[in-house]
Amino acid sequence: xxxxxxxxxxxxxxxxxxxxIYMKEGALPLKVINGRPGYxxxxxxxxxxxxxxxxxxxxxxxAAASFKHVSxxxxxxxxxxxxxxRKAYFVEDMELSPLACxxxxxxxxxxxxxxxxxxxxxxxxxxxxxxxxxxxxxxxxIAPGYQPEALEVLKQKKKGNYVIIQMDPEYEPEEIExxxxxxxxxxxxxxxxxxxxxLLKNIVTEQKNLPESASRDLLIALITLKYTQSxxxxxxxxxxxxxxxxxxxxxxxxTRLAASKAENWFLRQHPAVMDLxxxxxxxxxxxxxxxxxxxxxxxxxxxxxxxxxxxxKVPDRLNHQEKRAWIDKxxxxxxxxxxxxxxxxxxxxxxxxxxxYIAQPGGSIRDQDVIKxxxxxxxxxxxxxxxxxxx
Length: 391
What we know:
Low-confidence stretches: none
Largest sheet: 6 strands, mixed
Strand content: 15-25%
Distance between the termini: 29 Å
Strand order of the largest sheet: 3-8-7-6-4-5
Number of strands: 15
CATH class of the largest domain: Alpha Beta
CATH superfamily of the largest domain: AICAR transformylase, duplication domain
Mean pLDDT: 95
Number of domains: 3
Radius of gyration: 21 Å
Structural class: alpha/beta
CATH architecture of the largest domain: 3-Layer(aba) Sandwich
């Protein structure tokens, strides 16, 4: 890893040329093994690498992230998948390693948004993980290393143009970071605060019991938010993010967006979805799109046509009551917010998704209203006193 400059295809857009990344001093801590990365690819790569590295250090398990446009579509740790998730993630008959499970969970949080994602993996990439990546539509991957047979599989993607980056796992940036906006240099201390269980000690609700599994999911949500464009809210369940609401101007919009994604994740495991009879020639992405249309209401004529043409036999749609009854089966979901909740409406919406555990900074003039809302639902809420804005 001796290069100190890499020329890029272009910047954010094709007309923004020339473009490059470089180190002012020393060599870049990465090596481009295959393909030619773009400007946005590398923004995703460096943000996602920080996320999985921190998840790995915090929870001592392999970690993965699926990134799109400098925010995670999903993030997870390598907990084994049950049969339902294996089917929901289209890997019923595949060999799975802990790292493969982490990526499947990260990709499975929001499979529609993850179409064409950037992948970050905390461990050396093994063959089971590479075989899964080979089946998905993706732009590139960053990891600390690659097993030879895994690398050969990945090099076949995108007609040999798949971007593969090896990152130096020992690299640590300088304490002070800077960037230019409109020709003006901004400088600040890097956000290297550690996200640990210490942030969850100040429980302000009547309910105080915070199980280890809930602490784990809250840490996943908080670390995910640390690398998500603000405002942001993250729902987590069973070792993975299941709904991320990023880049919204209103906190309630973050919560609504994240909640709708979480509910979609729950519904993808509904028996009716598990039993959908797809036509044989459908790709994984086309199946994802068909499921998305199946779960949505009020389809346009064109969407209805696509949906109907995806199945051997057009299935009966789930009605609102059936969806609600299924979502109500899920509980013990964790929720974190990168800044305080200004109103209780966020808690009311979260309760509809089975949220039981919440972590947020606190500090609103309406904190007592938010605490009361949590008490009304029997939730456990910790004030972290740590804002996690990321721009």
